[in-house]
Amino acid sequence: MRIALIHGPNLGLLGRRETEVYGTDTLADINGAVDALASELGVEVEAFQSNSEGAILDFLEEAGQRVDGFLINAAGLTHTSVALRDGLVGVGLPFVEVHISNTAAREGFRHHSYLSPVAAGVVQGFGSQGYLLALRGLVARIAGE
Amino acid sequence: MRIALIHGPNLGLLGRRETEVYGTDTLADINGAVDALASELGVEVEAFQSNSEGAILDFLEEAGQRVDGFLINAAGLTHTSVALRDGLVGVGLPFVEVHISNTAAREGFRHHSYLSPVAAGVVQGFGSQGYLLALRGLVARIAGE
Amino acid sequence: MRIALIHGPNLGLLGRRETEVYGTDTLADINGAVDALASELGVEVEAFQSNSEGAILDFLEEAGQRVDGFLINAAGLTHTSVALRDGLVGVGLPFVEVHISNTAAREGFRHHSYLSPVAAGVVQGFGSQGYLLALRGLVARIAGE
Amino acid sequence: MRIALIHGPNLGLLGRRETEVYGTDTLADINGAVDALASELGVEVEAFQSNSEGAILDFLEEAGQRVDGFLINAAGLTHTSVALRDGLVGVGLPFVEVHISNTAAREGFRHHSYLSPVAAGVVQGFGSQGYLLALRGLVARIAGE
Amino acid sequence: MRIALIHGPNLGLLGRRETEVYGTDTLADINGAVDALASELGVEVEAFQSNSEGAILDFLEEAGQRVDGFLINAAGLTHTSVALRDGLVGVGLPFVEVHISNTAAREGFRHHSYLSPVAAGVVQGFGSQGYLLALRGLVARIAGE
Amino acid sequence: MRIALIHGPNLGLLGRRETEVYGTDTLADINGAVDALASELGVEVEAFQSNSEGAILDFLEEAGQRVDGFLINAAGLTHTSVALRDGLVGVGLPFVEVHISNTAAREGFRHHSYLSPVAAGVVQGFGSQGYLLALRGLVARIAGE
Amino acid sequence: MRIALIHGPNLGLLGRRETEVYGTDTLADINGAVDALASELGVEVEAFQSNSEGAILDFLEEAGQRVDGFLINAAGLTHTSVALRDGLVGVGLPFVEVHISNTAAREGFRHHSYLSPVAAGVVQGFGSQGYLLALRGLVARIAGE
Amino acid sequence: MRIALIHGPNLGLLGRRETEVYGTDTLADINGAVDALASELGVEVEAFQSNSEGAILDFLEEAGQRVDGFLINAAGLTHTSVALRDGLVGVGLPFVEVHISNTAAREGFRHHSYLSPVAAGVVQGFGSQGYLLALRGLVARIAGE
Amino acid sequence: MRIALIHGPNLGLLGRRETEVYGTDTLADINGAVDALASELGVEVEAFQSNSEGAILDFLEEAGQRVDGFLINAAGLTHTSVALRDGLVGVGLPFVEVHISNTAAREGFRHHSYLSPVAAGVVQGFGSQGYLLALRGLVARIAGE
Amino acid sequence: MRIALIHGPNLGLLGRRETEVYGTDTLADINGAVDALASELGVEVEAFQSNSEGAILDFLEEAGQRVDGFLINAAGLTHTSVALRDGLVGVGLPFVEVHISNTAAREGFRHHSYLSPVAAGVVQGFGSQGYLLALRGLVARIAGE
Amino acid sequence: MRIALIHGPNLGLLGRRETEVYGTDTLADINGAVDALASELGVEVEAFQSNSEGAILDFLEEAGQRVDGFLINAAGLTHTSVALRDGLVGVGLPFVEVHISNTAAREGFRHHSYLSPVAAGVVQGFGSQGYLLALRGLVARIAGE
Amino acid sequence: MRIALIHGPNLGLLGRRETEVYGTDTLADINGAVDALASELGVEVEAFQSNSEGAILDFLEEAGQRVDGFLINAAGLTHTSVALRDGLVGVGLPFVEVHISNTAAREGFRHHSYLSPVAAGVVQGFGSQGYLLALRGLVARIAGE
Fold first, then answer.
1. pLDDT per residue over H46-104, tens digit each?
2. Residue from the list K122, K130, K137 with its beta carbon closest to the beta carbon of L129
3. Does residue B83 belong to the interface with chain H, where contact is any CB pair within 8 Å?
4. D touches which chains (3+ CB pairs under 8 A)?
5. Chain E residue with minimal CA distance to D88?
6. ipTM score for this prediction
7. Distance set, CA B52 to CA C48, C57, C58, C76 (Å)
8. C70, burial (CB in 10 Å: exposed 0-12, middle 13-18, buried 19+)
9. What are the pLDDT digits (tens) for I8-35?
10. Domains in chain I: ranges and CATH
């Protein structure tokens, strides 16, 4: 089983800024922890980060031909991108939406997600732990457990 | 570490009705799976189900004095009960909100939760698997990982 | 054929208060009239009243195993209880929603019903006569007329 | 006692189109069933159908001088015609609003009725059976039962 | 100068029903009073009443070729008819909107008029007197006073 | 019969600025024309202008003891002043609301008036002519015509 | 193949008024151009215009038995008529909605169409050219291209 | 004179949790202070607390037969319970609504109260002092001062 | 301790008009009763009334230097004045908002107060009694009880 | 005459995914058909596809110097991109908006287009045929037919 | 060139209260700094402060005859005064709107300004520095730079 | 002190298109004027323009390590990009938002900015002059004046 992990805009700043909101783990820390759990679960994960909606859509279209599902933290695009929703529906694979912070506890414009209604599952508020929970959930979903 | 698992209204019907939405696991199946994972993680879980908002509030108030956190699927009360939100905030312990179905993909009135803004984390859409993810997330949160 | 007739919160006050809105028939009068028509139509009706949402949900779950449909005046819960809607959908039997007064002619918050979209039919504004119309409609529906 | 039964726009298509929504009874079938029940109840009913709001208003104004109440399925006009509401209030007779389908379970624009707040009663969702329930309700109302 | 006076749906009932809202003058009384003032002002007025939006539009299109302006009480169509607005704009003559009652003091759906934004002037709340005020205003407008 | 004519904020600028919206008549011109018509109708009119809501309320309270009704163009206060509405209701005399321009054809915030629902009548869009129409309407109202 | 072309309220004024919005082609010009293209495409077109919603519904019901689809410019009814939508759905034939002007660039109340969600296609903003595009689109749709 | 004092859901936690919002007085402290003032004013007060809406309605119905009015802090039910409003109106006694915190300064969903429009008076924001003010106000109201 | 009591626009009419809403006490009666209670409580009160928002703000700014808190019935300004809110926050003293009538039971535009979210407490619906309750509440608040 | 045809995000997936919504034609098929019609009409078309809003804007800016108009299917950007609207207005050339599916029949967030109010015309719902209709419409518009 | 600088309600409190929001500069400090910059730029500035909307309108009307533009911080009136907007438009001179704090970062009701849509420019969030920027911008605007 | 000046989508068109809205200065003119003022103020400015949101975010992330603040005209992204807001907050430096036109006087969707609530200041409506005002404001802010 092969999973693509997509990090959206600004996540390259993780661990360096706004640590009271997003914690002190860097993107590398998170990718490392996800890789460790993936090994334990016997699956492969490839990580991708971009600040560009277009680049993420290009990646979706291309990676959609070699993976079994997506783990995605779309960051700010979550709330504004119909194109990302269309792309995720278009590739036709299950995906899990993850957020480090609890978006329901933040500004009103973060309460609506274009992705949630078409996601296989949603995990939010657990800090970087959330990626591990999301990975477990996605793997179980693909394995049909 | 001790966790209370609260099941809200109608969840006694799990596994018998609307299985296309909620799956075929009964409440007992779910409690069993949560117990198994709890043992593995070295924590204790006590489960409680009620169709009555008042009874859940009574339980919160009482159990709040012997546990370290709550795992809660408030079902229909999620969307209507200010009292439940007040109770959860009042006892002052971290709680994780879990939903079997993906509420974002269902009727509009299920898109708003009174609990999410004050939850430590939210897990939805993974079927009964979601309880296990939520337990892991809550334990990690309490342990300060 | 067996029907359960459910009366929601405050309906124990019927005939004693606000008679200009709800008329002078008591709950016993209504139950009696429904019983009389039921005999005429050759069906059995059991009546239940509670002020507690939780108790109504308990009743739904239990009675749902011995009746063919529900007649329900959910009173104030009509407008606020997602849990009741979920319970009615959960037991999977046809139900008819009845209101003594014409809720469309009253306060704005009574214009929305969580139950109507999932009801087999709705009858409102006919005073206690409405129960008889609703019973006829439900029996015809179950009989497949 | 004399009742006018008004059928609004497109109801001439009944029984021929969209039978999964409106059933297989034609307008003639419904008028026949209403006539049969009317005989049983000892009242007279005259039926009228028009696709024109203006013609319905003309009929209301004229028939309002020889009948005791109206039974009306205003179809699409239910949701858009202030003029029809004004006409019904203007003639000053009780009327019952009936819908074959359960409008609360259909598109959002069918959830608001200009007629309901000024109706004597509302019956919806019972298929063509609903006309019979509505007739019973209206007759009881006029008879002052 | 020639003016057409248009009365919309249900105004044929004037003076017979809801006299506490619309007063006791009949349509003939109003037309007579308008004629008397018209003579005094040296203008001609032709009156037209219809319950049908289509017939009013036909009249607009035809009369628009022989008159200098319109006086219109569109009754219920005021609040719902884009077609009437389009027709009035289409004929390209000044028109004054008049209402017998004060629509701002009635139900919320009467607070919006499709006609007002394109009217030369609006007069409401003066009872049948309002027609006379509106006639004076329209004549002054056409005369360029 | 005695009438007070109240001009609200900025109306002292009439005839000097924005003449394409408000015309070229000055406040003195309008007061003169109103006086002329008042003489003709056999009534007395006293005019008052202020840019201050408080001063207008003081005037209302004081003049309310010697006049029979008010003619008021509240200008910008029309859309924002609950206090003005309360004052007009408080003095308990009939008043007519007049606007030089057609407020329904201007910015959205001018479409709502706090005064209209409690006014005896409303006249708008006729330029300075509107004051004369409004005076006629108010006099007829007070005279009980 | 046979097509009915329906023109709604006020379109009889085309080419004579508001030419800056609707252009200088008359209804006859448009019908002529449509006929010419129809001949070229080998289909027959019959045109119908009415200011009356009821007459349009009558036509729909009757013509629906001899044509293969509709081309419709419903004008003002586009935005207000549930009955027209119901009629178009009721006859069960594909139809294309056409507007001469670009309704999205006009008043807010023209931005919503009751017809679009059930149309086979929508063409707007191309002036009278739009009828030709719409005819091509409808013919291709019926031919199953 | 006899007064019933009703405490809604979660108020059993008073003085133990969220003391920055609700202060340090326990429910017993508040009941004691109310009793002391009641003695001074020569009235009797009986206090009741429940987490269950149904139980509160039962109490209302029963106590309504022996008291002269209610003092109620409905807590979270204030904002969601139509049934509670109906019950309070149903028993037909004056009641005063009290809140410890200033609900207008908290989350948006606490700004609407189903109870306020039918209350004799409302007191909020004074901490536990508010109960004493409310008692004085209710006693004065019942005494007809 | 010194308190300023502010009466907003139109309150000079108290006891003379709309007595069914505001009761028969005049402003002098209310000031007298407040003075009496103030003596009993050992505090001084100075009363001020103005119809002008600007004058009230001037008073706030000036009196804010010699008093310990404000008691204010802002009447119509309650619902429209951001400036008054800013002034009250600006002087930095605790204030209590009082309304004679129960604003929650009146027109919709009276349901929102700009002052409540920044008030120390709110008292409404108790008639002129409310001033006494508000005074007690404010004194207790300032005294730190 | 030279036209640029712009395909927005995810349209590279055409013909491979969600064929029940978008049909089986690939992007190459559509470009081919457009080219064929362009030859017939004697115009040149250059096609461009990108998943990136920024790249589309770069293309607009550059191509705007050599073409006479644009044909654009902006896909998901239609509903979210103010920048794309600004770019299209900025280059100052006529453009036609085309959608393969009937967006009015899909999710609510697809009902609003930032582009339509500034487009020369809109074509939607005709499948890949729509590009040909749009091309004809744009060519006629540029040619001034 | 001559400029009038208008300070709205409560700004007399500047530098004494809420210094964390508005800074420690007093009104005199700001006027002094503006004067200094004015001298440097070779223009004259006269400053005016009032808590009364009416007085500000009086000043606008009078000063409008001797100055070339206005610099205005309308404080709370920004969000509520249509009369102030009308006055500024009425005098027909360019004005710049300035706010000390960043209103977009404060309460929701401060996000809408009646003045911005008719202002020559807006400057907000720079503390008392903002007046200097606004002065530069206004002078450049009047000078036609 | 070092400042980065960011120009968003379509601003490369400045001075060539829509000059009635944006003026005749090109991007180079603006950059030149900003450089000149920067020299005068003793600060360095580096300018960056991109049509791509992703590229702007990359620039923010990288430049954020060598500059002291940002001057940004985000153009259309102002109204739609949560990601840009997140990026600006993430880098943690003060920024000033500038718009050439007065966005409050344009289409409704331009009235909301995702950036304003987190900006140090906002300047709009002054044409290209606005950049100079914004630079002065930002420099003063960073210098702590």
1. 999 999 999 999 999 999 999 999 999 999 999 999 999 999 999 999 999 999 999 99
2. K137
3. yes
4. C, E, G
5. E10
6. 0.93
7. 17, 8, 9, 16
8. buried
9. 999 999 988 788 888 889 999 999 999 9
10. 2-143 (3.40.50.9100)
